[in-house]
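Researcher: Let's try something more involved. This one mixes different molecule types, so please make sure each is placed in the same coordinate frame as the others.
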Amino acid sequence: MGIQVAVPETSSRVLSQEEFSARLESIGEERYHHRHPFHLLMHEGRLTPGQLQAWALNRYYYQSRVPMKDAIILSRSDDLEFRRAWRKRLLDQDGREGAGGLECWLKLAEATGLGRERVTSCAELLPGVRYAVDAYLALVERGTLLEAVASSLTELFATRLIAVRLDSLRRHYAWLSNALGYFEARLSQAPEDAQFAFNWVYQHARTRDEQELAVRALTRKCDLLWAQLDALYFAYVEPGWPPPGAFRREQD
Amino acid sequence: MGIQVAVPETSSRVLSQEEFSARLESIGEERYHHRHPFHLLMHEGRLTPGQLQAWALNRYYYQSRVPMKDAIILSRSDDLEFRRAWRKRLLDQDGREGAGGLECWLKLAEATGLGRERVTSCAELLPGVRYAVDAYLALVERGTLLEAVASSLTELFATRLIAVRLDSLRRHYAWLSNALGYFEARLSQAPEDAQFAFNWVYQHARTRDEQELAVRALTRKCDLLWAQLDALYFAYVEPGWPPPGAFRREQD
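Model: All components are placed in one shared frame. Result:
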Protein backbone atom coordinates (compact mmCIF):
# COMPACT_ATOMS: atom_id res chain seq x y z
CA MET A 1 0.00 0.00 0.00
CA GLY A 2 1.45 3.33 -1.01
CA ILE A 3 0.89 6.95 -0.26
CA GLN A 4 -2.25 6.97 -2.43
CA VAL A 5 -4.33 5.75 0.50
CA ALA A 6 -4.04 9.17 2.02
CA VAL A 7 -6.84 10.56 -0.15
CA PRO A 8 -9.23 12.09 2.38
CA GLU A 9 -12.56 10.30 2.50
CA THR A 10 -14.41 13.56 2.35
CA SER A 11 -12.85 14.59 -0.95
CA SER A 12 -15.16 14.27 -3.92
CA ARG A 13 -12.28 13.57 -6.29
CA VAL A 14 -12.60 10.34 -8.26
CA LEU A 15 -9.85 7.94 -7.20
CA SER A 16 -7.40 6.64 -9.77
CA GLN A 17 -7.32 2.91 -10.31
CA GLU A 18 -4.24 2.67 -8.12
CA GLU A 19 -5.78 4.74 -5.36
CA PHE A 20 -9.02 2.80 -5.51
CA SER A 21 -7.13 -0.48 -5.32
CA ALA A 22 -5.12 0.77 -2.34
CA ARG A 23 -8.32 1.86 -0.64
CA LEU A 24 -9.83 -1.62 -1.02
CA GLU A 25 -6.61 -3.23 0.17
CA SER A 26 -6.66 -1.11 3.31
CA ILE A 27 -10.19 -2.33 4.06
CA GLY A 28 -9.03 -5.91 3.66
CA GLU A 29 -5.99 -5.36 5.82
CA GLU A 30 -8.16 -4.06 8.65
CA ARG A 31 -11.37 -6.05 8.32
CA TYR A 32 -10.94 -9.27 6.37
CA HIS A 33 -11.41 -12.39 8.48
CA HIS A 34 -7.80 -13.49 8.18
CA ARG A 35 -7.39 -11.53 11.40
CA HIS A 36 -10.25 -13.19 13.25
CA PRO A 37 -9.21 -15.04 16.46
CA PHE A 38 -11.02 -18.18 15.28
CA HIS A 39 -8.85 -18.31 12.18
CA LEU A 40 -5.75 -17.51 14.19
CA LEU A 41 -6.46 -20.51 16.42
CA MET A 42 -6.98 -22.67 13.35
CA HIS A 43 -3.76 -21.57 11.76
CA GLU A 44 -1.84 -22.23 14.95
CA GLY A 45 -3.32 -25.72 15.14
CA ARG A 46 -5.13 -24.87 18.34
CA LEU A 47 -8.70 -25.71 17.26
CA THR A 48 -9.96 -29.04 18.50
CA PRO A 49 -11.44 -31.61 16.08
CA GLY A 50 -14.91 -30.73 17.34
CA GLN A 51 -14.33 -27.03 16.74
CA LEU A 52 -13.21 -27.83 13.22
CA GLN A 53 -16.43 -29.79 12.72
CA ALA A 54 -18.47 -26.81 13.93
CA TRP A 55 -16.63 -24.61 11.47
CA ALA A 56 -17.08 -26.97 8.51
CA LEU A 57 -20.75 -27.53 9.30
CA ASN A 58 -21.58 -23.86 9.71
CA ARG A 59 -19.53 -22.64 6.82
CA TYR A 60 -21.31 -25.14 4.60
CA TYR A 61 -24.33 -22.86 4.78
CA TYR A 62 -22.26 -20.02 3.39
CA GLN A 63 -20.93 -22.28 0.63
CA SER A 64 -24.43 -23.48 -0.23
CA ARG A 65 -25.63 -19.90 -0.71
CA VAL A 66 -22.73 -18.79 -2.90
CA PRO A 67 -24.20 -20.14 -6.17
CA MET A 68 -27.59 -18.67 -5.27
CA LYS A 69 -25.87 -15.33 -4.64
CA ASP A 70 -24.12 -15.53 -7.99
CA ALA A 71 -27.39 -16.40 -9.73
CA ILE A 72 -28.98 -13.31 -8.18
CA ILE A 73 -26.17 -11.23 -9.63
CA LEU A 74 -26.62 -12.90 -13.03
CA SER A 75 -30.36 -12.24 -12.88
CA ARG A 76 -29.71 -8.54 -12.37
CA SER A 77 -27.50 -7.95 -15.38
CA ASP A 78 -28.76 -7.33 -18.88
CA ASP A 79 -25.20 -7.40 -20.19
CA LEU A 80 -24.52 -10.64 -22.04
CA GLU A 81 -20.74 -10.32 -21.72
CA PHE A 82 -20.94 -9.70 -17.99
CA ARG A 83 -23.16 -12.75 -17.56
CA ARG A 84 -20.84 -14.92 -19.62
CA ALA A 85 -17.95 -13.92 -17.37
CA TRP A 86 -19.83 -14.14 -14.08
CA ARG A 87 -21.41 -17.54 -14.68
CA LYS A 88 -17.94 -19.08 -14.30
CA ARG A 89 -18.51 -18.76 -10.57
CA LEU A 90 -21.69 -20.79 -10.79
CA LEU A 91 -19.87 -23.51 -12.68
CA ASP A 92 -16.93 -23.44 -10.26
CA GLN A 93 -19.11 -23.86 -7.20
CA ASP A 94 -21.73 -26.27 -8.56
CA GLY A 95 -19.21 -28.18 -10.64
CA ARG A 96 -18.75 -28.76 -14.34
CA GLU A 97 -18.57 -32.45 -15.25
CA GLY A 98 -17.13 -33.35 -11.87
CA ALA A 99 -17.38 -32.03 -8.33
CA GLY A 100 -17.46 -28.29 -7.75
CA GLY A 101 -16.62 -26.19 -4.73
CA LEU A 102 -19.77 -27.07 -2.85
CA GLU A 103 -19.17 -30.80 -3.17
CA CYS A 104 -15.52 -30.30 -2.19
CA TRP A 105 -16.64 -28.48 0.92
CA LEU A 106 -18.89 -31.42 1.80
CA LYS A 107 -15.89 -33.71 1.38
CA LEU A 108 -14.00 -31.54 3.83
CA ALA A 109 -16.88 -31.64 6.30
CA GLU A 110 -17.02 -35.42 5.95
CA ALA A 111 -13.28 -35.59 6.58
CA THR A 112 -13.87 -33.83 9.89
CA GLY A 113 -16.06 -36.81 10.77
CA LEU A 114 -19.54 -35.45 10.06
CA GLY A 115 -22.18 -37.30 8.07
CA ARG A 116 -23.19 -35.71 4.79
CA GLU A 117 -26.89 -35.43 5.63
CA ARG A 118 -26.12 -33.81 8.93
CA VAL A 119 -24.26 -31.05 7.10
CA THR A 120 -26.58 -30.56 4.12
CA SER A 121 -29.71 -30.44 6.29
CA CYS A 122 -28.41 -27.22 7.89
CA ALA A 123 -30.47 -28.27 10.91
CA GLU A 124 -27.73 -27.54 13.44
CA LEU A 125 -26.56 -24.19 12.13
CA LEU A 126 -25.81 -21.34 14.46
CA PRO A 127 -28.48 -18.69 13.97
CA GLY A 128 -25.78 -16.03 13.89
CA VAL A 129 -24.17 -17.72 10.91
CA ARG A 130 -27.48 -18.03 9.14
CA TYR A 131 -28.31 -14.36 9.66
CA ALA A 132 -24.94 -13.20 8.41
CA VAL A 133 -25.16 -15.32 5.27
CA ASP A 134 -28.76 -14.28 4.62
CA ALA A 135 -27.65 -10.67 4.99
CA TYR A 136 -25.20 -11.33 2.17
CA LEU A 137 -27.98 -12.48 -0.14
CA ALA A 138 -30.07 -9.47 0.85
CA LEU A 139 -27.19 -7.11 0.08
CA VAL A 140 -26.75 -8.65 -3.33
CA GLU A 141 -30.46 -8.63 -4.08
CA ARG A 142 -31.40 -5.20 -2.81
CA GLY A 143 -28.27 -3.13 -3.22
CA THR A 144 -27.27 -1.76 -6.59
CA LEU A 145 -25.56 -4.14 -9.01
CA LEU A 146 -22.38 -2.20 -8.30
CA GLU A 147 -22.66 -3.00 -4.58
CA ALA A 148 -23.49 -6.62 -5.36
CA VAL A 149 -20.38 -7.03 -7.48
CA ALA A 150 -18.20 -5.01 -5.12
CA SER A 151 -19.20 -7.24 -2.22
CA SER A 152 -17.35 -10.07 -3.97
CA LEU A 153 -14.08 -8.17 -3.74
CA THR A 154 -13.08 -10.00 -0.57
CA GLU A 155 -11.67 -12.40 -3.14
CA LEU A 156 -8.83 -9.90 -3.51
CA PHE A 157 -7.69 -11.05 -0.08
CA ALA A 158 -8.69 -14.70 -0.25
CA THR A 159 -5.62 -16.18 -1.90
CA ARG A 160 -3.20 -15.15 0.81
CA LEU A 161 -5.52 -16.47 3.51
CA ILE A 162 -6.08 -19.75 1.69
CA ALA A 163 -2.35 -20.29 1.18
CA VAL A 164 -1.78 -19.89 4.93
CA ARG A 165 -4.76 -22.09 5.72
CA LEU A 166 -3.76 -24.91 3.39
CA ASP A 167 -0.36 -24.96 4.98
CA SER A 168 -1.66 -25.03 8.54
CA LEU A 169 -4.45 -27.51 7.91
CA ARG A 170 -1.93 -29.91 6.35
CA ARG A 171 0.49 -29.40 9.20
CA HIS A 172 -1.85 -29.47 12.19
CA TYR A 173 -4.82 -31.50 11.02
CA ALA A 174 -3.32 -34.25 8.92
CA TRP A 175 -6.59 -36.20 8.69
CA LEU A 176 -7.98 -33.42 6.52
CA SER A 177 -5.08 -33.44 4.06
CA ASN A 178 -6.89 -35.40 1.37
CA ALA A 179 -10.01 -33.27 1.59
CA LEU A 180 -8.60 -29.83 0.82
CA GLY A 181 -9.70 -29.69 -2.81
CA TYR A 182 -11.95 -26.73 -2.13
CA PHE A 183 -9.05 -24.53 -1.09
CA GLU A 184 -6.70 -25.87 -3.74
CA ALA A 185 -9.18 -24.88 -6.44
CA ARG A 186 -9.77 -21.46 -4.91
CA LEU A 187 -6.04 -20.70 -5.13
CA SER A 188 -6.42 -20.20 -8.86
CA GLN A 189 -10.13 -19.30 -9.05
CA ALA A 190 -10.15 -16.48 -6.51
CA PRO A 191 -7.50 -14.29 -8.20
CA GLU A 192 -9.22 -14.62 -11.60
CA ASP A 193 -12.60 -13.79 -10.11
CA ALA A 194 -11.20 -10.92 -8.09
CA GLN A 195 -9.45 -9.41 -11.10
CA PHE A 196 -12.60 -9.45 -13.20
CA ALA A 197 -14.73 -8.00 -10.41
CA PHE A 198 -12.18 -5.32 -9.59
CA ASN A 199 -11.98 -4.17 -13.20
CA TRP A 200 -15.75 -4.16 -13.54
CA VAL A 201 -16.25 -2.22 -10.33
CA TYR A 202 -13.58 0.29 -11.22
CA GLN A 203 -15.15 0.86 -14.65
CA HIS A 204 -18.68 1.15 -13.32
CA ALA A 205 -18.04 3.28 -10.25
CA ARG A 206 -17.73 6.51 -12.20
CA THR A 207 -18.10 9.03 -9.40
CA ARG A 208 -16.44 9.22 -6.03
CA ASP A 209 -19.82 8.55 -4.42
CA GLU A 210 -20.10 5.32 -6.36
CA GLN A 211 -16.55 4.39 -5.41
CA GLU A 212 -17.46 4.93 -1.77
CA LEU A 213 -20.56 2.79 -2.26
CA ALA A 214 -18.32 -0.01 -3.51
CA VAL A 215 -15.99 0.45 -0.55
CA ARG A 216 -18.93 0.22 1.83
CA ALA A 217 -20.22 -2.93 0.14
CA LEU A 218 -16.81 -4.53 0.56
CA THR A 219 -16.79 -3.43 4.20
CA ARG A 220 -20.19 -4.99 4.78
CA LYS A 221 -19.02 -8.21 3.18
CA CYS A 222 -15.99 -8.27 5.49
CA ASP A 223 -18.36 -7.70 8.41
CA LEU A 224 -20.53 -10.64 7.52
CA LEU A 225 -17.60 -12.99 7.11
CA TRP A 226 -16.30 -11.80 10.46
CA ALA A 227 -19.70 -12.20 12.15
CA GLN A 228 -19.84 -15.88 11.13
CA LEU A 229 -16.61 -16.52 12.99
CA ASP A 230 -17.81 -14.48 15.96
CA ALA A 231 -20.78 -16.82 16.22
CA LEU A 232 -18.49 -19.85 16.01
CA TYR A 233 -16.05 -18.46 18.54
CA PHE A 234 -18.74 -17.62 21.03
CA ALA A 235 -20.53 -20.95 20.73
CA TYR A 236 -17.60 -23.32 20.47
CA VAL A 237 -14.44 -21.70 21.77
CA GLU A 238 -15.25 -19.48 24.67
CA PRO A 239 -17.32 -19.32 26.80
CA GLY A 240 -19.00 -22.08 24.84
CA TRP A 241 -22.71 -22.45 24.87
CA PRO A 242 -24.23 -23.20 21.49
CA PRO A 243 -27.92 -22.33 21.40
CA PRO A 244 -30.58 -25.04 21.68
CA GLY A 245 -30.61 -27.29 18.63
CA ALA A 246 -27.24 -26.14 17.30
CA PHE A 247 -24.40 -28.58 16.63
CA ARG A 248 -22.75 -29.92 19.79
CA ARG A 249 -19.28 -31.34 19.80
CA GLU A 250 -19.13 -35.04 20.64
CA GLN A 251 -15.41 -35.38 20.16
CA ASP A 252 -12.52 -33.12 21.03
CA MET B 1 -55.16 -36.04 -25.80
CA GLY B 2 -57.12 -38.87 -24.26
CA ILE B 3 -60.09 -39.28 -22.03
CA GLN B 4 -57.97 -38.48 -18.96
CA VAL B 5 -58.57 -34.77 -19.46
CA ALA B 6 -62.09 -35.24 -18.20
CA VAL B 7 -60.98 -35.12 -14.56
CA PRO B 8 -63.22 -32.44 -13.06
CA GLU B 9 -61.29 -29.35 -11.96
CA THR B 10 -63.10 -29.33 -8.65
CA SER B 11 -61.94 -32.81 -7.69
CA SER B 12 -59.18 -32.86 -5.11
CA ARG B 13 -57.74 -36.09 -6.47
CA VAL B 14 -54.07 -35.92 -7.42
CA LEU B 15 -53.71 -36.34 -11.18
CA SER B 16 -51.64 -39.19 -12.53
CA GLN B 17 -48.65 -38.25 -14.66
CA GLU B 18 -50.66 -39.01 -17.79
CA GLU B 19 -53.63 -36.96 -16.64
CA PHE B 20 -51.41 -34.07 -15.59
CA SER B 21 -49.66 -34.13 -18.94
CA ALA B 22 -53.01 -34.16 -20.76
CA ARG B 23 -54.20 -31.24 -18.66
CA LEU B 24 -51.14 -29.18 -19.62
CA GLU B 25 -51.54 -30.15 -23.28
CA SER B 26 -55.12 -28.94 -23.24
CA ILE B 27 -53.96 -25.55 -21.93
CA GLY B 28 -51.45 -25.35 -24.75
CA GLU B 29 -53.97 -26.35 -27.35
CA GLU B 30 -56.29 -23.56 -26.27
CA ARG B 31 -53.95 -20.79 -25.21
CA TYR B 32 -50.45 -21.14 -26.66
CA HIS B 33 -49.57 -18.40 -29.12
CA HIS B 34 -49.40 -20.77 -32.10
CA ARG B 35 -53.06 -19.76 -32.51
CA HIS B 36 -52.47 -16.01 -32.38
CA PRO B 37 -53.57 -14.13 -35.55
CA PHE B 38 -50.15 -12.45 -35.78
CA HIS B 39 -48.47 -15.84 -36.02
CA LEU B 40 -51.10 -17.09 -38.45
CA LEU B 41 -50.33 -14.15 -40.73
CA MET B 42 -46.62 -14.90 -40.44
CA HIS B 43 -47.04 -18.55 -41.26
CA GLU B 44 -49.17 -17.71 -44.27
CA GLY B 45 -46.51 -15.31 -45.50
CA ARG B 46 -48.84 -12.35 -45.09
CA LEU B 47 -46.71 -10.22 -42.79
CA THR B 48 -44.91 -7.38 -44.51
CA PRO B 49 -41.14 -6.91 -44.07
CA GLY B 50 -41.82 -3.99 -41.73
CA GLN B 51 -44.15 -6.08 -39.62
CA LEU B 52 -41.47 -8.74 -39.37
CA GLN B 53 -39.03 -6.08 -38.22
CA ALA B 54 -41.46 -4.96 -35.54
CA TRP B 55 -41.79 -8.55 -34.38
CA ALA B 56 -38.04 -9.21 -34.31
CA LEU B 57 -37.34 -5.93 -32.51
CA ASN B 58 -40.00 -6.39 -29.88
CA ARG B 59 -39.40 -10.05 -29.28
CA TYR B 60 -35.72 -9.26 -28.70
CA TYR B 61 -36.77 -7.82 -25.36
CA TYR B 62 -38.31 -11.16 -24.42
CA GLN B 63 -35.16 -12.97 -25.54
CA SER B 64 -32.94 -10.60 -23.58
CA ARG B 65 -34.86 -11.32 -20.38
CA VAL B 66 -34.84 -15.10 -20.73
CA PRO B 67 -31.36 -15.60 -19.20
CA MET B 68 -32.24 -13.18 -16.41
CA LYS B 69 -35.40 -15.18 -15.78
CA ASP B 70 -33.40 -18.40 -15.66
CA ALA B 71 -30.88 -16.85 -13.29
CA ILE B 72 -33.73 -15.88 -10.97
CA ILE B 73 -34.87 -19.50 -10.97
CA LEU B 74 -31.30 -20.65 -10.28
CA SER B 75 -31.02 -18.17 -7.43
CA ARG B 76 -34.11 -19.62 -5.80
CA SER B 77 -33.02 -23.25 -5.68
CA ASP B 78 -30.82 -24.72 -2.97
CA ASP B 79 -30.69 -28.01 -4.87
CA LEU B 80 -27.32 -28.48 -6.55
CA GLU B 81 -28.62 -31.07 -9.01
CA PHE B 82 -31.52 -28.86 -10.06
CA ARG B 83 -29.15 -25.93 -10.60
CA ARG B 84 -26.76 -28.06 -12.64
CA ALA B 85 -29.63 -29.08 -14.91
CA TRP B 86 -31.26 -25.65 -15.15
CA ARG B 87 -28.10 -23.69 -15.91
CA LYS B 88 -28.07 -25.36 -19.34
CA ARG B 89 -30.67 -22.78 -20.34
CA LEU B 90 -28.38 -19.96 -19.35
CA LEU B 91 -25.58 -21.42 -21.45
CA ASP B 92 -27.94 -22.06 -24.39
CA GLN B 93 -29.20 -18.49 -24.46
CA ASP B 94 -25.99 -16.62 -23.61
CA GLY B 95 -23.82 -19.01 -25.63
CA ARG B 96 -21.02 -21.36 -24.73
CA GLU B 97 -17.86 -20.75 -26.76
CA GLY B 98 -19.83 -19.38 -29.67
CA ALA B 99 -23.07 -17.50 -30.18
CA GLY B 100 -26.08 -18.43 -28.07
CA GLY B 101 -29.78 -17.92 -28.60
CA LEU B 102 -29.71 -14.22 -27.82
CA GLU B 103 -27.00 -13.52 -30.38
CA CYS B 104 -28.85 -15.67 -32.92
CA TRP B 105 -31.96 -13.62 -32.35
CA LEU B 106 -29.96 -10.46 -33.03
CA LYS B 107 -28.75 -12.01 -36.27
CA LEU B 108 -32.37 -12.62 -37.22
CA ALA B 109 -33.30 -9.03 -36.37
CA GLU B 110 -30.36 -7.82 -38.46
CA ALA B 111 -31.51 -10.00 -41.34
CA THR B 112 -34.87 -8.18 -41.24
CA GLY B 113 -32.85 -5.03 -41.97
CA LEU B 114 -32.55 -3.50 -38.51
CA GLY B 115 -29.30 -2.19 -37.06
CA ARG B 116 -27.98 -4.06 -34.03
CA GLU B 117 -27.90 -1.03 -31.73
CA ARG B 118 -31.44 -0.13 -32.62
CA VAL B 119 -32.56 -3.54 -31.41
CA THR B 120 -30.38 -3.90 -28.31
CA SER B 121 -31.21 -0.41 -27.06
CA CYS B 122 -34.85 -1.48 -26.61
CA ALA B 123 -35.68 2.19 -27.13
CA GLU B 124 -38.52 1.54 -29.57
CA LEU B 125 -40.27 -1.27 -27.75
CA LEU B 126 -44.00 -1.38 -27.47
CA PRO B 127 -44.94 -0.73 -23.84
CA GLY B 128 -47.38 -3.65 -23.98
CA VAL B 129 -44.54 -6.01 -24.87
CA ARG B 130 -42.38 -4.65 -22.08
CA TYR B 131 -45.14 -5.05 -19.49
CA ALA B 132 -45.87 -8.62 -20.51
CA VAL B 133 -42.22 -9.61 -20.37
CA ASP B 134 -41.69 -7.84 -17.06
CA ALA B 135 -44.74 -9.69 -15.72
CA TYR B 136 -42.95 -12.91 -16.60
CA LEU B 137 -39.95 -11.96 -14.47
CA ALA B 138 -42.27 -10.95 -11.63
CA LEU B 139 -44.06 -14.29 -11.81
CA VAL B 140 -40.78 -16.14 -11.63
CA GLU B 141 -39.46 -13.98 -8.82
CA ARG B 142 -42.53 -13.75 -6.62
CA GLY B 143 -44.42 -16.97 -7.26
CA THR B 144 -43.34 -20.23 -5.69
CA LEU B 145 -40.43 -22.06 -7.28
CA LEU B 146 -42.99 -24.58 -8.53
CA GLU B 147 -44.86 -21.82 -10.36
CA ALA B 148 -41.60 -20.41 -11.71
CA VAL B 149 -40.58 -23.76 -13.17
CA ALA B 150 -44.10 -24.57 -14.37
CA SER B 151 -44.23 -21.30 -16.28
CA SER B 152 -41.49 -22.67 -18.53
CA LEU B 153 -43.73 -25.52 -19.67
CA THR B 154 -44.79 -23.63 -22.78
CA GLU B 155 -41.69 -25.35 -24.12
CA LEU B 156 -43.86 -28.45 -24.33
CA PHE B 157 -45.62 -26.76 -27.24
CA ALA B 158 -42.69 -24.87 -28.74
CA THR B 159 -41.24 -27.51 -31.00
CA ARG B 160 -44.34 -27.91 -33.13
CA LEU B 161 -44.69 -24.16 -33.51
CA ILE B 162 -41.04 -23.72 -34.40
CA ALA B 163 -41.15 -26.47 -37.02
CA VAL B 164 -44.08 -24.72 -38.71
CA ARG B 165 -42.39 -21.34 -38.39
CA LEU B 166 -39.07 -22.49 -39.83
CA ASP B 167 -40.87 -23.89 -42.80
CA SER B 168 -42.94 -20.78 -43.46
CA LEU B 169 -40.12 -18.31 -42.85
CA ARG B 170 -37.96 -20.19 -45.36
CA ARG B 171 -40.77 -20.33 -47.86
CA HIS B 172 -42.20 -16.83 -47.58
CA TYR B 173 -39.30 -14.71 -46.34
CA ALA B 174 -36.31 -16.09 -48.16
CA TRP B 175 -34.03 -13.22 -47.08
CA LEU B 176 -34.22 -14.55 -43.53
CA SER B 177 -33.22 -18.09 -44.47
CA ASN B 178 -29.61 -17.77 -43.34
CA ALA B 179 -30.55 -16.20 -40.03
CA LEU B 180 -32.77 -18.87 -38.55
CA GLY B 181 -30.18 -20.38 -36.20
CA TYR B 182 -32.21 -19.42 -33.17
CA PHE B 183 -35.11 -21.62 -34.19
CA GLU B 184 -32.91 -24.42 -35.48
CA ALA B 185 -31.23 -24.67 -32.07
CA ARG B 186 -34.54 -24.54 -30.22
CA LEU B 187 -35.78 -27.58 -32.16
CA SER B 188 -33.55 -29.77 -30.04
CA GLN B 189 -33.22 -27.58 -26.92
CA ALA B 190 -36.91 -27.04 -26.23
CA PRO B 191 -37.90 -30.71 -25.96
CA GLU B 192 -34.99 -31.46 -23.60
CA ASP B 193 -35.82 -28.47 -21.44
CA ALA B 194 -39.52 -29.24 -21.45
CA GLN B 195 -38.96 -32.86 -20.45
CA PHE B 196 -36.79 -31.88 -17.49
CA ALA B 197 -39.22 -29.20 -16.34
CA PHE B 198 -42.25 -31.46 -16.75
CA ASN B 199 -40.68 -34.22 -14.66
CA TRP B 200 -39.59 -31.77 -11.98
CA VAL B 201 -43.00 -30.14 -11.80
CA TYR B 202 -44.78 -33.47 -11.68
CA GLN B 203 -42.53 -34.66 -8.85
CA HIS B 204 -42.80 -31.45 -6.86
CA ALA B 205 -46.53 -30.79 -7.24
CA ARG B 206 -47.55 -33.34 -4.66
CA THR B 207 -51.14 -32.27 -4.04
CA ARG B 208 -53.92 -31.44 -6.45
CA ASP B 209 -53.75 -27.83 -5.26
CA GLU B 210 -50.10 -27.68 -6.25
CA GLN B 211 -50.89 -29.27 -9.59
CA GLU B 212 -53.52 -26.59 -10.17
CA LEU B 213 -50.98 -23.93 -9.20
CA ALA B 214 -48.67 -25.27 -11.89
CA VAL B 215 -51.51 -25.28 -14.42
CA ARG B 216 -52.29 -21.67 -13.58
CA ALA B 217 -48.64 -20.66 -13.93
CA LEU B 218 -48.57 -22.24 -17.39
CA THR B 219 -51.80 -20.42 -18.24
CA ARG B 220 -50.31 -17.12 -17.15
CA LYS B 221 -47.23 -17.78 -19.25
CA CYS B 222 -49.43 -18.48 -22.29
CA ASP B 223 -51.26 -15.23 -21.55
CA LEU B 224 -48.08 -13.19 -21.54
CA LEU B 225 -46.82 -14.68 -24.78
CA TRP B 226 -50.21 -13.95 -26.31
CA ALA B 227 -50.27 -10.39 -24.98
CA GLN B 228 -46.97 -9.60 -26.72
CA LEU B 229 -48.52 -10.52 -30.05
CA ASP B 230 -51.68 -8.57 -29.24
CA ALA B 231 -49.52 -5.48 -28.79
CA LEU B 232 -47.76 -6.15 -32.09
CA TYR B 233 -51.00 -6.80 -33.93
CA PHE B 234 -52.65 -3.69 -32.66
CA ALA B 235 -49.70 -1.42 -33.37
CA TYR B 236 -48.52 -2.80 -36.70
CA VAL B 237 -51.25 -4.82 -38.37
CA GLU B 238 -54.60 -3.27 -37.68
CA PRO B 239 -55.66 -0.59 -37.05
CA GLY B 240 -52.02 0.41 -36.81
CA TRP B 241 -50.91 3.17 -34.56
CA PRO B 242 -47.77 2.43 -32.60
CA PRO B 243 -47.50 4.69 -29.54
CA PRO B 244 -45.15 7.70 -29.54
CA GLY B 245 -41.52 6.65 -29.64
CA ALA B 246 -42.20 3.06 -30.63
CA PHE B 247 -40.68 1.50 -33.76
CA ARG B 248 -42.24 2.77 -37.00
CA ARG B 249 -42.03 0.84 -40.20
CA GLU B 250 -40.02 2.54 -42.92
CA GLN B 251 -40.30 -0.26 -45.44
CA ASP B 252 -43.15 -2.55 -46.38
